[in-house]
Amino acid sequence: MVRTQVAIVGAGPAGLTLSHLLHLEGIESIIVEARGQDYIESRVRAGVLEQTTVDLMVQSGLGERLLREGLVHHGVWLNFGGQRRRIDFDDLTGGRAITVYAQHEVVKDLIKARLDSGGQILFEAEDVTVEEFQSEAPRLRFRKGGAEQEISCDFIGGCDGFHGICRPSIPEGVLAVYDRTYPFAWLGILAEAAPSSEELVYSYHDRGFALFSMRSPGVTRLYLQCDPEEDLERWPDERIWAELLTRHSTGDGWAPRQGPIVQKGLTGMRSFVVEPMQCGRLFLAGDAAHIVPPTGAKGLNLAVADVAVLARALAAFYQSGRRDLLKRYSETCLRRVWKVQRFSWWMTAMLHRFQTDNAFDRRRQLAELDYVTSSRAAQTTLAENYVGLPLD
Ligand code: FAS
Ligand code: PHB
Known about the structure:
Layout: E1 2-3, E2 6-9, H1 13-24, E3 29-32, H2 37-42, E4 48-49, H3 51-59, H4 64-69, E5 71-73, E6 75-80, E7 83-88, H5 89-93, E8 98-100, H6 103-116, E9 120-122, E10 126-131, E11 139-144, E12 147-152, E13 155-158, H7 166-169, E14 176-191, E15 201-203, E16 210-216, E17 219-226, H8 237-247, E18 261-275, E19 278-279, E20 282-284, E21 290-291, H9 299-320, H10 324-327, H11 329-351, H12 359-372, H13 376-386
Parallel strand pairs: 1-12, 2-3, 2-13, 3-9, 6-15, 13-20
Antiparallel strand pairs: 4-8, 5-8, 6-7, 10-11, 11-12, 14-17, 14-18, 15-16, 16-17, 18-21, 19-20
Helix pairs in contact: 1-6, 1-9, 9-11
Arabino-flavin-adenine dinucleotide is lined by residues 9-15, 32-35, 40, 45-47, 103, 125, 128, 159-161, 164-165, 267, 286-287, 294, 297-300, 303.
């Protein structure tokens, strides 16, 4: 039986950041991860870091490669009705920005930091279970390399994502679930093509939403709204490019540059929250507790915000015996979670085509986009949410 202070399930952004922040406070943890290191370091997911996330990474000693390779953006473009209009983050938020730096790069930096400082990450763990978390002596059981293993601990970080085992391990009747599934998905591609815009472009079009993003000076990241049950086999490269060029068409002649498509994938669209985000000594963080539609670029950022709260609460417990911050963990996180859910829903509702909408709804959406890009008050609300609300 191995002993640690905090056992963490999942080596995604939530679990790794939690372990790193605890280490800085002198608190021991062990991460138990189902997948292998290579797999999670190459899993293509999010791409945009809020200012709040960048600040936390830099302040916690993880900023070196991020500041060198990350692409700092001081604005974003909304493209609709044949025109592109820019939301100026600098002017509207006093200099806060976003940084484009792929999630798997964040994961690589976090794994390196943990292993370099002697952190323990147990990859390829099977059949992980969390037990006794409503007692003062919770524990993890799992199998690794064919051998049964057990970790006893004081607390468990449930950072195992939407399909993990931590949330389902909480007894019936404890959790309230808030859930909305959208009638569309995103088809995402990575193309070996130099980005033709320095900043992201969100396009509203009669045929559906499209997003232009990037990963590096040589790689463009693009998404288009599609049917939730879409079959990727029905989307050869030519069809993807034709649809992207149509939806991103605009009056100023801008268009995504084309290049070989090196990755294709489908992402479902969902808003999901469980309350509370804790049960006894098990604390849920990140996608284990909530899911946002990626239109607001918030998934990863919300995971990091959760564990910043949890690390602070655990430090207060170990350093001064305080239990109040742990007790208030869910309440503290959920204030931000629901504001981010609202923003992500709002961006999704404003920019996507809904089959159930009629001509009135389309005019209403165009009027909202016109208002959001012409009123300073409306631009400010988009900008301050997009770059990230300050941590409480
Ligand atoms: P994660 O899912 O990243 O990590 C959970 C970890 O737990 C994984 O490594 C998993 O292997 C492990 N695990 C699961 N079950 C386990 C078990 N039983 N035992 C041990 N380990 C277990 N967000 C954006 O902002 N923008 C995007 O464009 C975007 N695109 C996405 C595309 C896809 C396909 C997906 C699934 C998500 C996307 N997201 C996006 C959201 C994503 O970035 C998440 O918000 C982010 O990964 C959340 O981090 P974690 O909470 O750490 O969960
Ligand atoms: C991305 O670059 O992957 C990205 C950017 C903005 C979003 C979603 C995804 O809203």
